[in-house]
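## retry 2 of 3
previous attempt timed out at serialization; input unchanged, resubmitting
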Amino acid sequence: MNINKKMESSLKLKISDWELDFYSRPIIELSGKKRWELIISSTRSYKTEEIFLWNKKCPANKVNSVWLTKALNEAISEAKKQGWAKPSIVRFWRSSMKSIIKKSLEAVSIEALVSRRTYDLLDRIEFLEKEIYPKEKGYVRGVLAPTFTSKMENSPKPLPEAVRGDALTISEISIGELKSAENWPMEFGDIFPIQQDLDDTLALSAWFSCLEPIKLVINKNQLILEASEDDKWLVTDLPEKDANILSTKFLENKKNSFGYQFISIQSTPYIEKFAGFWILRDIELIS
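## retry succeeded, writing output
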């Protein structure tokens, strides 16, 4: 009976990937050293409306994989107390911390994925930077640590020929429609609940599902998809007039609609089924 109860309890644990940042913050501690802090957020999904958030300060002289491994174990234990299963994947994007973070995640048997598809973590950091840190003693206005918004210098690569679509259509849909994406028929994709309150097909979709798409941007007359850690993929070249119109729309969307974007893949535009669908966000940290 006890074994069955334990199995039943484990089956009810909430499941989610995690997003992680381990770096200095805009606060000088009494020791005269910059504050270092581990920030963890679970990734929102339609499986649960809740989100797991966890922070822990790290002494400046203990910024290493030993401290981080211990902190990760503490986070896993706290998450379990709150009804969360141990994550199978943790995303992070600080390239300068890659070695320490990968080593620590390996020590706790969690897959490390270098990706900037960490929208909930970025929302959390933005909240801390706007609402919490400025009220603390030792706060320093400005950025002490380089952020996710650093410009990537990589040149865009053309999409692999085997996964290029036959046609490209630029579309707009309402936030209300996007919120219902959970119920749309699709073979591949990565969608998440939208919290803000605002008024060759399968081959290509399978390839996109491994891509970690982040956001679409316009650079001169090119439509570019940013993905993973620092990848750039050339989606298409645009006429100058169309590029200017689309660039203006992207800026308006970022200002008025929290930067939500989407990519959909269909075998034909005449059927209401997606081979793939991904919700993206053009989001940045405050500077």
